[in-house]
## 1
Amino acid sequence: MVDVRHKGEIDQGAIEGAILIDIRKENFLEQAKSLLNSDEPVYLYCKKGSRSTKAGTELLLTKEFTEVYYLTGGYTQWKQNQENP
């Protein structure tokens, strides 16, 4: 699970065990390549979904990552689901 939000957002809460790789940083792809196994599925999330979609597109364009998934509704939806199961 990869959280592509920035540190200020993560300070307000995150999914336990998620790896932080800020999509806004110039070295996003380099960090992703060094921290993630391209042979395994990658699950991405941001606040609502748009940045994780952008991050996933960037990963797929490298042709190194072939299984990329997005958390629908992002962290906002995940948190609501946790509070109201």
## 2
Amino acid sequence: MRIVIDTNVIISAVFFGGMPRRLIEHLFNDDFTAFVSPQIVQEYAETYEEVHKKYSDRGNPAILQKILEKSTVFIPQKEVAICRDPDDDKFISCALEGKCLYIVSGDNDLLSLGKVEDVEIVTIVEFLEKIEK
């Protein structure tokens, strides 16, 4: 199964654990394949740095590195302009062209779309329910 994971989920997993960390454990166990584009990787890294300034006692760059190593880098050839937050379109482009089934997000701008073509946009809870059945 192919998915795209939104930055907020990755950062929550790295810094705070909980359900986002559980999702990442499934990635580490090869329960699905995560796709990223260079723009997504850049956003992960930049957001990690911002959050690390605020929570310097938390966060482990090795976890972020392992997430990136387990992810498949994909360069979409077409950019979409669908989301009300244009910054989120990179996730949709990657998912559509990478033939992913899901985008896992906590972002209401993405979640409000529900589905774009064959890609469902779901919360962490919804995705965990699907893969932990």
## 3
Amino acid sequence: RYPARALEICKKLGIPAVNVHEQFVESLKSGVDPYLRWDNHMNAEGHRIVAETLADRISELLNGK
């Protein structure tokens, strides 16, 4: 619930936000868990997904998209 709530608040306040839910779901579907087993925080794969998604979005913004 937290990510959805945070995205909702950002939208209401006009704050740009990047949603990585789809990328995490795809990672899980491919058999690569982006979460630590013991506390459900991101592991190295989860951080890679976030970093690549942010880099892609920044690139888009710099290129006027």
## 4
Amino acid sequence: MVSISLSNVIVNAVQNTPENHYIKIWHEVGKKHGTRLCILNTGAHIDEDELPRLFEPFYRVDKARTRGQGRSGLGLAIVEKSLKRMDAVYSLENTPEGVLFWMELPD
């Protein structure tokens, strides 16, 4: 389940990182669990009202995107379900550098 979650978050970051910016992936000691995995797509920003809705199935911030572009709108919903099954703590948040997704994985 961790690999599915990590893969979906990385694909999402790749698809939503602005041109001439980059994705940074690292790990650190978690605050509640063993390891915190972090994925930052620099230069990106999501309206604060949109952040909690991104985990809803089929929700898209950019309404112009369609399934014809190869995106189902299920990636982050799958991530959320997988992480909840593992009792993992996670967050999607704006930072001064861009959009950060992190998940803390139990030991």
